[in-house]
Amino acid sequence: MKKQLVVIGNGMAGMRTVEELLDAAPDSYEITVFGAEPYGNYNRILLSSVLSGEKSMDDIVINDRQWYADNGIRLYTGADKAAVRIDRAGKKVYAQDGTVAAYDRLLIATGSKAMIPPIPGHDLGGVVSFRDIVDVNKMLAYSRSHNKAVVLGGGLLGLEAANGLALRGMDVTVVHNHDRLLNRQMDKPAARLLQAELERRGLKFKMAAQTRQLLGDDCGHIVAVEFEDGSGLACDLFVMAVGVRPNISLAQASGLHCGRGIIVNDTLQSYDPSIYAVGECIQHRGDTFGLVAPLFEQAKVCANHLSAHGVAQYLTLPTATKLKVTGIQLFSVGDFLGDAACESIHFTDFELGIYKKLVIKANKLVGAVLYGDTADGSWYQQLLEQGRDIAGIREGLIFGKAYVMAG
C-alpha cells in the first residue's frame, strides 16, 4: 500500500517538492493537492512579464492539469476546494466544501500574502495588491480604461509593477518611504543609476514619502493620494507592493508551532513529525523567504526526506537579487553595505552606466553590488558562498573572473 501525501498549496515551492519526490521515489505516495487558485501550477515570478506584455498566461504555466493526471495526482483547485482545516489527531485535511483527504505525511506550502498597510482608504475600489493572476488581470483591465497609476513600494515588486503598467500606457508614479530605490538590495550610487534609467523610461518617483490617506469619490473609488507633507497625486489605480508576510493562519489554527512563519528544522519538518513545510510560509533558523532560489533548495531537501533517503539538510545561503525589467542589469548579494571591519572596492563608469562595489572582510568577499554589468555576479556569489580567501586575487577582483584568470 502506498502512503498518502497531502499537499496544501499548489504553488512553486510545493509543486517543485512534488516534482523532486516523483524523481526520487515515484511509487512511494498517493498524492493529493489542494490549491486555492483555480489553475494548475504557474510561475508567480513571471507575473510581472504578463503585466508588461512580454508573456501570456499560457507562457508561465509550469504544470498544466494534464501533468497532474499523467502523474496520478488528485488535484483540487478553486475557492471551494481551498483547505480550511487540518485535523492533526485524525491526520485529515478538510476543504471549504467538505472534501476530506487523509494523510500519512502532510506538506504545507501555503506561500505568503501581500501586506496591506492600514492606510485610510485602503478598501476603496481601484486599490489592488500585486500577488496573483487575479491582481494582474485587474491591473490590465485598469490600464485599458484608466490613466493614472500610483505604486506604493520602491522594492523589486513595486518597480516591476510600475514598469509593466507604464509599458501598458499608464502614467505611473512610484511612492517609496525611503530615499533610495531597492534600499534592501542597493547602495546609493547604484540606486541613483537605477532611478535615472527608470525616469528615462517615463516613470515618476516620490521618494522618502509617507502616505496619509487615499481619497475616494461618491462611488467609493479612489481618485487621489494624499501625503503627510500636504502634497497629493491624482490616482485611478493604486497598487500596494510593500512586501509579503508568510501565510500561516491554517497552520496556527491547527496548533503547529509558528513564529513569523511555520517553524521547521533543517529537514523542513515542523514540530509535528508528520508535517513538513516549504516556501514562503516557513521560518528556518530565524529566516523567512521571498525569493525563488531558496524555495527550490528547500524542495530538494524536503523531497529527500519524504522519499526516506533522509540525508539532506537545508542551509540558508545568501540569495542574489535581480530585477525583472528588460534592459536593466543589476545584481546584489550578501552584506553590500558592510561595517567598520569591512573594506570596499569600487569601479564606476557613469558614462556607460556601470557601477560595481565589492565588500571585503578578513580577505573574504562578503557582499557585492553590480549595476550595468552583471556578467560576474554568479562568480562573486560563488566566492562569497565558498568563503574563499581572495588575498591572492584581490588586485584584479573588481575586473571580474576573466581578468583574474588571465592574470
Which labels suit this protein?
407 residues, alpha/beta, FAD/NAD(P)-binding domain, Enolase-like, domain 1, 5-stranded parallel β-sheet, 26 strands, 24% helix
What's a concise summary of this model?
The chain is built from ten helices and 26 strands.
Q: Considering DSSP H and I runs of 4 or more, what fraction of the residues is helical?
A: 10-25%
CATH superfamily of the largest domain: FAD/NAD(P)-binding domain
Structural class: alpha/beta
How are strands sequenced across the largest beta sheet? 5-2-1-9-21
* Number of discrete helical segments: 10
Q: Which fold does the CATH topology of the largest domain refer to? A: FAD/NAD(P)-binding domain
CATH architecture of the largest domain: 3-Layer(bba) Sandwich
- How would a textbook summarize the main sheet? 5 strands, parallel
Q: How many structural domains does the protein architecture include?
A: 3
Radius of gyration in whole Å, from Cα?
Answer: 23 Å
The top-level CATH class of the largest domain is Alpha Beta
- Uncertain segments: none
Structure explained in plain terms:
- By secondary structure, the protein is an alpha/beta fold.
- The chain has three domains: 3-113 and 244-306, FAD/NAD(P)-binding domain (3-Layer(bba) Sandwich); 127-240, FAD/NAD(P)-binding domain (3-Layer(bba) Sandwich), CATH 3.50.50; 330-406, FAD/NAD-linked reductase, C-terminal dimerisation domain (Enolase-like, domain 1, 2-Layer Sandwich).
- Helix content is 24%, strand content 29%.
- Strand 1, helix 1 and strand 2 (29-35) form a beta-alpha-beta unit.
- The chain starts with a strand and ends with a helix.
- The model has no long low-confidence stretch (mean pLDDT 95).
